[in-house]
């Protein structure tokens, strides 16, 4: 069984505004192509991610859509109970809908947030229950994902654990490719 941990930037770190932001379309395009490549090569059974607004939720949305065509399962894990309680109503609703749509949902702690230990326990859980990771992350622009990145790099010192990074240069290339596919789709209509 091949289990992939997907994480990356929060939506605010990417300066995305609303669900229709063109940057989100590009990121979902990247995620979809990445997942399809693994799926078509028999290298992916589970997509496991967190619930943070941004890359993690977009990855879950893409993965849920891919289940219509591919035999992939989707899991959302949170580091503590009541994870989205402080979010605005719209974001809480999106979170609840995603929770319902995935194959498995759980928290690594049965308590609401108490300390950073819960976040480290979550990282350890993800590392021990996945076979590889994919991050939309650029070392030149650390942000919140730096904690997951450093946990993965530390884990790699003693374990075989592949990490695929999609950085801002990759996203720029993908944006150009995505734009080309959109234009060619318009011409073929």
TrEMBL record:
Xref: SUPFAM superfamilies: MCP/YpsA-like
InterPro entries: YspA
Signal peptide (residue range): none
Pfam families per record: YpsA
Family in the record: Belongs to the UPF0398 family.
Protein name: UPF0398 protein LA749_04565
Source organism of this protein record: Lactobacillus acetotolerans
Organismal lineage: Bacteria, Bacillati, Bacillota, Bacilli, Lactobacillales
